[in-house]
Automatic annotation (TrEMBL):
TM annotation in the entry: 7-25, 31-51
Gene coding for it: phoR
Protein known as: Phosphate regulon sensor protein PhoR
Function: Member of the two-component regulatory system PhoR/PhoB involved in the phosphate regulon genes expression. PhoR may function as a membrane-associated protein kinase that phosphorylates PhoB in response to environmental signals.
The keyword ATP-binding is annotated on this UniProt entry: yes
Length: 433
């Protein structure tokens, strides 16, 4: 049981009780009046401490908290302890927040915290310099009001956080930024902005170098291949022992010529960042050509089936689309044993046209799938070289997909074959009447 302390209430109650005994036989009215007066005084003391509590809450301070009396002494003691604990927590939180702010300011990337309405709550100094905003002036302003860029607005409203957006600076066309949205909290976002100007310059130098070298190599290679083909037709002019060497030279020069052509194509596609044209492609004719060239590559050693929905056409760059489709089919041929099945499908799903290649080949380790579209990446280098692969096919496909706002999906299992799928956006669809 809790100890009953001798406080004001019990004193008043005892006095009232004694008064009733003393006055009970003389005057009941006087005793009752005295009892009510005691209760009133008791209630008045509570009102006083409530007043003191209210006054203290308006300006709380540990040094000015009242001592109280009776039950109020305990209440103020609890308040003192809780306020002290809260003040300590607040101090620790302020210290932690200060460290976070210092760390955020030290990060070279721009960071902006956005609320559920995409309004600026906070940003660091690098973001102010990159995006031309001021926290003191632009706080609580919608970010899309300050960055009036159509592509940025679409990216912001898309609510997809699995990709980045590249933008050219609207203040200085010589600077490029990469923007990434990261969700956090309930419905907040972090906008991370990175200056990729130097990276873009380095990539441009590398592309130009590869394009120039490839272009310079193309002419002498064409001459070499031409002479080798001429010599190979003059079999009677050579010793039988030299013919295999001549054939090997011709194969390797053909392979090098194919590599140069792929490098030039990749360089051309990469240097053109603009979306591809929206010209209607006759898919029936395109697939007839695909069928013929696929069988030539396969040398009729695979079962190549093509399923085509003739009611849908694609709006795009015909030469690039043909190159992407043929690269996927040739990739399937390269990694499928003789007698294997290869299915090419052209159809529509959810109002989005797609091209899909399925094979019964050797399959791909799931860990390697993210690297497949890298330049010169090969699952099996020896196999790829022997089959004439350059390691650039899927990289070309990736950049053609970017130009057509398409997505490439890859599924594969070791020993169970692979599935490559290009999904085009709805605006690239054309339905035949």
């Amino acid at each position: 049981m809790q100890d009953i302390r001798w406080n004001t209430f019990w004193v008043l109650l005892l006095v009232s009780f004694l008064s009733l005994i003393f006055w009970g036989f003389k005057s009941l009215e006087v005793a009752l009046f005295f009892f009510i007066s005691c209760i009133f005084v008791y209630l008045l003391s509570h009102v006083y401490w409530i007043y003191r509590l209210n006054k203290w809450l308006k300006n709380p301070n540990l040094s000015t908290i009242p001592n109280g009396s009776g039950i109020w002494e305990e209440i103020f003691a609890i308040l003192y302890r809780e306020y002290r604990k809260q003040k300590k927590s607040k101090s620790e939180l302020t210290t932690t927040l200060g460290r976070f702010m210092t760390a955020a300011e030290a990060i070279p990337d721009g960071i902006i915290a956005l609320n559920q309405n995409n309004e600026i709550e906070w940003c660091n100094k690098p973001s102010e310099k990159m995006l031309d905003i001021q926290l003191t002036k632009d706080i609580n302003q919608p970010i899309n009001y300050l960055l009036r860029e159509t592509r940025f607005t679409e990216y912001l409203n898309d609510n997809k956080y699995d990709g980045t957006l590249k933008l050219i600076s609207w203040r200085n066309s010589g600077r490029s930024f990469e923007i990434l949205l990261v969700p956090f909290g309930v419905s907040q976002k972090l906008l991370i902005c990175r200056d990729i100007t130097q990276i873009e310059k380095n990539d441009s130098i590398k592309r130009d170098f590869i394009a120039n070298v490839s272009h310079e190599l193309k002419t002498p290679l064409t001459v070499i291949v031409g002479f080798l083909e001429t010599l190979s037709e003059m079999k009677n002019e050579f010793n039988v022992k030299t013919l295999p060497y001549l054939q090997m030279m011709l194969e390797q020069s053909d392979r090098m010529k194919k590599l140069v052509e792929d490098l030039l194509q990749l360089s051309s596609i990469e240097s053109n960042a603009a979306p591809a044209e929206k010209k209607e492609i006759d898919m029936t004719e395109l697939f007839k050509k695909l069928k013929k060239d696929s069988e030539f590559l396969s040398r009729k050693s695979h079962k190549i089936n093509m399923s085509i929905n003739k009611n849908i056409a694609l709006l795009g760059h015909e030469k690039e689309i043909y190159s992407a489709f043929l690269n996927l089919i040739s990739n399937a041929i390269r990694y499928t044993k003789k007698g294997g099945n290869i299915n090419a499908i052209w159809d529509i799903k959810d109002q989005k046209p797609f091209f899909e290649v399925q094979d019964s080949g050797i399959g791909i380790d799931e860990k390697l799938i993210p690297r497949l579209t890298e330049r010169f990446f090969r699952i099996d280098a020896d196999r790829s070289r022997n089959s004439g692969g350059t390691g650039l096919g899927l990289s070309i496909v990736k950049h053609i997909c970017i130009r057509h706002q398409a997505q490439i999906e890859i599924y594969s299992q070791i020993g169970k074959g692979s599935q490559f799928k290009i999904i085009f956006p709805q605006e690239r669809l054309s339905l035949k009447k």
